[in-house]
Amino acid sequence: MVLYEKPVLLQEMKVDKMKSAASPPPRLLDALIQRLRYMHYSIRTEQAYVYWVRFFVRWSGMRHPREMGEREVQAFLSMLANERRVSVSTHRQALSAVLFLYKEVLAVDLPWMAELGHPSTSRRIPVVLTQGEVQALFAHMRRDTTHLLARLLYGTGMRLLEGVRLRVKDVDFARHVIVVRDGKGGKDRVVMLPRALAAEMRQQVDLARRLWERDRAQGVAGVYLPHALELKYPSADTSWMWYWIFPSPQLALDPRADTGEALAPLRRHHFHEKRLQRDLKAGVVGAGIDKPATVHTLRHSFATHLLQAGTDIRTVQELLGHSDVSTTMIYTHVIKVAAGNAASPLDGLVADAARSLLHEVQPPALPPPAAREPEAVYALARPERERCALVA
């Protein structure tokens, strides 16, 4: 048996090589997705790049990108800016997607790529709610998971996806801290767990525990694990410590699963972020807040209120996970305007005009009354003066 095993294996290897050589190359979007996952881009970036590449190909009349060059790319970007009137950030995202397609997928690196104009971004003052507005917002939100999640984001400064992706192992009730894993830029950081939310967070963990026990009893597939941890630790996806703190009430397919995979397992994903966005928008309308407040506004308000309370800016930088303190400095501009240290010159003109008007309307001062003796004294003293005159 051993004598025939190696020739059989060699023959199978040759057949596999012939199949792989004869197999057609992957489609453009499939090759794009494979390259994005190879370079460990996030699922959001993957979805955005696939959207823009598909848009670019359809706009060109279904031509292959290899057949197009600088003229077509410039025309596509000009169309986005002039006809679609997209924002600067959207314009830069579309440009990054097209450049990634040519450089990383098609392996084309031509001089005209470096000459493409990159739209410049401008620093904008973030929308910040006052503490009274935040309180009114929470009062007009539904008392469910979104209400707890909104207060948690405001109390910790976490981003939306950082909050919904929290796992059981990331919350330390003993030290009142939360470990944010794989945040923006793939960085980890530690934030505080508000003591005012500790009891409600424990209740949420208990609800997640009951849902996890039901999934285990029904044989539901484990949760999603990043970076192939499911292969390294085969039982980690079904363990309690990797379970979501805010699990979704429904099962769904993994968004990274292949579309042609008919037997893709249903998983329990985290709470969908659109539910919080929808409920918070309704709370803003109900509270009568005349500001374009979103979920990310809670993060801006967290940083501004900490700085107003006297927290060091370096501490705020670490809590927000900013790489550069200049990004955190944007909140100091909000504080300067809100503090009102510099008075407007118009206020001085109005105050001077009011004082002048008050001086003109005020009646002139009357002279002090002349001093005189009371009439009663003269009346009592008259008979005495007459008697003295007769005697004399």
What is the C-alpha radius of gyration, as a whole number of Å?
37 Å
> For the residues shown, what is the average pLDDT?
84
Count of spatially separate domains: 2
CATH topology of the largest domain: hpI Integrase, Chain A
The CATH homologous superfamily of the largest domain is called: Intergrase catalytic core
Task: Please report the number of helical segments.
Answer: 18
Structural category is mainly alpha
Placed side by side, the strands forming the largest sheet appear as: 1-2-3
Can you tell me the CATH class of the largest domain?
Mainly Alpha
Give the helix/strand layout.
Layout: H1 2-22, H2 28-38, H3 43-59, H4 70-82, H5 88-105, H6 111-114, H7 131-139, H8 145-156, H9 160-164, E1 171-172, E2 177-180, E3 189-192, H10 198-218, H11 229-232, E4 247-253, E5 266-270, H12 273-287, H13 295-308, H14 313-320, H15 325-328, H16 330-339, H17 345-361, H18 375-391
Antiparallel strand pairs: 1-2, 2-3, 4-5
Helix pairs in contact: 2-3, 3-5, 4-5, 7-12, 8-12, 8-13, 13-16
